[in-house]
Amino acid sequence: MNGRVLLVDDEQHITRNLEKVIPWSMLGLEVTGTAKNGVEALELLRAEPADLILCDIRMPVMDGLELVRQIRERGMACDVIMLSGYQDFSYTRSAIQYGVKDYILKPIPYDELTGVIARVMSEQRNKRQQIKEEQRKLDRMIDLANEKILYDVLMDYTDITPDNWLMAGQEQLLGEPQYTLLVLDIDAGSADARDWREWPDKERKIWNFAVCNVLRETLRLAGLHHAVIQMRDGEWCVLIRGQKAADSGDGSPEARELQVNQWAEMLLASVRKNAKLQLHAGIYDKMTAMNKLSSAYKTVQRGMQLSTESVPIAVYGSEFAGGFDPGRTLWDIAERLIGAMKRGDAAGVDAEQRRLAEQLHKAGGSAEGRLKPMLHFLALHLMRELKEADLLQREQEEAMWRKMDLHFGVKDLFAAIRQASSEGVARSTDKRKHSERQLTDAKQFMDRHLFRDLSVEEAATYVGLSTSHFSLLFKQTYGETFIEYITRQRMEKAKALLLETSKSVALIAKEVGYAERRYFTKVFMKYAGQNPTDYRMAVQGGGSLLTVPEESEDEH
Fold this sequence. Notes:
With 556 residues, this protein is of the alpha/beta class. It contains 20 helices and ten strands. The protein has four domains: 3-128, Rossmann fold (3-Layer(aba) Sandwich); 165-316, Alpha-Beta Plaits; 326-432, no CATH class; 484-539, Arc Repressor Mutant, subunit A. A five-stranded parallel sheet has the order 2-1-3-4-5, sandwiched between helices. Strands 7-8-6-9-10 form a five-stranded mixed sheet, sandwiched between helices. Helix 2 (38-47) runs parallel beside helix 3 (64-73), helix 11 runs antiparallel to helix 14 (410-448) and helix 15 crosses helix 16.
């Protein structure tokens, strides 16, 4: 697409010569209009914006300098080259003041003017490319921040409401169906996963990271707006935002199911090719609002764990709930059992073990055929959660896997669950004081690194905890999530810097960990109710400190 040029001069032979002599096509430009004065030029610009204006200074009705002033006041994005037969320095100074790109004296040296136009348009293209690249970085930064928030949302650690300042202008995502949710998981109990189970923890972490990258790159190449969140070792939640069912416009449930299945097949094939491992996928049957993601994730996770069918892709949703009655009861017991273990609540663990025993007693002789597969899956789920919470030592994990591989009966499965949960709660109780010290160390580490992009994975690794266990402990101990704490600390530090220093907003944004000023401004406005410049003026009583000139707050 060619750039648009407007020629403005009261001498028609000048505009005719410019049209004919300058090699516009070679420069990637076309002349879309000519005007005899500034008034005519403004009318043409209102009808069709221009990328470049060549403009005389001395004209009747409205001269060139007044035209440029009007253009700048109205925020029209175009470059201007002034043409003049006058060498008066006052004209040049005024032209520079209004941001004119160059000043060419008449008679016009057309070769020189052609070079100036080429330079100006090259600068313009480079600037557009830079803006595009900055926007891409900003979008990725927002995506990464959203992934941190979305982890807490999926785990139900945070309340998402329009008043939550972490949303930073994304409130519209709360009530509308925005996400397609998929869960990708390794079948930990299968023979294919035996090699994976034997990998050391460090190798597993590298593999988990690699799979995240494979999933993100596959979705990026497919042009899908996405988030990929690792939920635990060998399990990922993929959220695809704002995609309708099929490009054909067919919004039927069948068309959507076909589309989402294609996405799942694409992701599984990519992981199989690039990470050399077989995963299976669970899909939530409806598009889901952000504030419903936690229940949707739990539905899919439960369905995948309790399913006795070995299929690569399965769909789960509320209408399938009736088919999970026995399994749902066991699942609820298992979830409460895991929660009690993580809290170090020995009485709670004993109570859930008794409930589990009662369910098995009620099932009687049917337990072997009907509940044994579900109990087996619950045992695997329990082991993975214990491992994620760092409540299962390596030798215990290996011993449990050996037992699981034997596929023994209900009585032995129940004994294994009971043993694992009892050891887990004992270990949790022993670790409670140690965990308090770990979290204190983590907070100190986080406070020292507010100036850079800090992930929950990095903070958890620093104190030797898994991401999910660290997130749970942090929320239980401090009453807020990792990202809520980090963002609040950054905003409070930013407020102090705005009050106590004359540093620019852009510099303060970098000092508190935001590479992009626009994103920082969004979050600050949501947190403080004002953009940073207005906040500074308000707290300084109109500017008691000598402040540096600020860029315009065009983000709000």
